[in-house]
Design goal:
alpha+beta; elongated; 405 residues; single chain; 16 helices
Amino acid sequence: MPNFAYKGRNSNSGALVQGELDGASMEAVADALVGRGVIPLEIIARQAAGAPLQIKFSREKILPEEIMLFSRQMYTLLKAGVPIMRALGGLQESTVNPAMTRVLREIRESLDSGRELSASLARHPKVFTQFYISMLRVGELTGRLDEIFLRLFEHLTFEKFMHDQVKSALRYPIFVSAVMLAALVVINIFVIPAFSKVYKLAGAELPLVTRFLVACSDLMVSWWPVLLVLTVAAAWSFRAWTQTTGGQLKWDEIKLRIPIAGKIVLKATLARFSRSLALALRSGVPIVQALNVTAQTVGNYHVARCVDKMREGVERGESVLRTAHGAQVFTPVVLQMIAVGEESGALDDLLQEIAEMYQREVEYELKTLSAQIEPILVVFLGILVLIVALGVFLPIWDLGKTMIK
């Protein structure tokens, strides 16, 4: 029987699980892992001859908008009393994306074999997140699957809105920064060398600013291949570092401390945390499991680690408020609302209010982000223009005075 190496995550704790398992096929191994409570991320079929043949599990390229549409359509169909198999069949016929069609067909086949809907979706971890699957599992247990699909649609809509707002707000600063960088390269390669030749012919003593600009220009003209390689290597190294566990954790922590942008990232993360936890609690998920699945939706590894510590504290019998205080990442407003929610028994309602409050604040911050960054860009641009102007025109002024004398 073939041997398979696998990587996955525990559906309860979210911990990374890996090992080897014998099975007739990759699908059989995936079924066995799901039965053990492990969501497979990657399955590798090992060949006896030598190097393993790697098979990526769930290679579908499906956009988040399609999952949003799927959730909304499932809510509408289930609310109207359409059976799940017929609903999935109708969606499969109407879907234009072949990848989504293939996923829906495999989900129907899995349901035909006797699996639950959440277990069928768990076979596609690259398409449906663990939070999505956990919420559906709760809907199956409580009999409110249609309501869960509606809440998941609202949650995904909120996530897309936040992503689009951040992307839109950063478009202008990135464009201006790119233009400034391009202008700096053009000045160093074409403008300053032309003036440098005139200065050398005149034989005059150049000011300090001019000597600095000429040295930078000579370095860029003479060593541009090395500088290009170093830039690419630095970008690649940074990307590789942020993809490691420690690097990603540290970078997400640094994001929260960046001037201007850091507070927006923190508010967006807290809004995502509050909305996800409120959704889980309203759906009947126990607080420990709710914190576990919420940690995977906040979008920041540093905050996710703090939420995991909260879960560990709650498991030891501590209150949510005390564990939130110990996390040292939540604002006083969030802590106060959690305290009132725990005392009144309406934690989900107050968390929802926190999410809506921070969503409004993030919207305002993103609308004014360009106005906040614009003065900084103007100052940097003014300093750049001043340095170039002094470096270029001071020698010309000195040469003019020498010729007059």
